[in-house]
Specification:
By secondary structure, the chain is mainly alpha-helical. The protein has a domain of 65 residues. Helices cover 64% and strands 0% of the residues.
Length: 101
């Protein structure tokens, strides 16, 4: 029988954060929030002033800038949850099958 070892999956050097989808989605949320914030900064300040742009963060209306804040918060939560989450499912059944092989 020939044993095949795949370096990408069997390498002990890969960290667990690379395999977690929540960490990647958190990075994506923060990058997209930055793109939206820069786009709004460019579009609003070319037509109006920087005060109008900054006022959109604190006024009572629902604006894109408030979605930027929500996306950054959601991104940080996803990164925190993805980075510090214990991988319990990986070792969940280890004691059940230990000794059968």
């Amino acid at each position: 029988m020939i044993a095949v070892k795949f370096k990408k999956f069997d390498s002990p050097k890969t960290s667990q954060t690379n395999k977690n989808w929540m960490y990647g989605m958190g990075i994506l949320f923060i990058v997209m929030a930055g793109i939206i914030a820069l786009r709004n900064l460019y579009l609003i300040t070319t037509r109006y002033s920087i005060d109008m742009y900054l006022d959109n963060y604190i006024n009572g209306k629902i604006t894109n800038e408030k979605f930027v804040i929500a996306m950054v918060i959601a991104g940080v939560v996803l990164i925190y949850w993805g980075y510090f989450k214990k991988n319990k499912d990986k070792y969940k059944y280890k004691s059940q099958f230990h000794g059968e092989i």
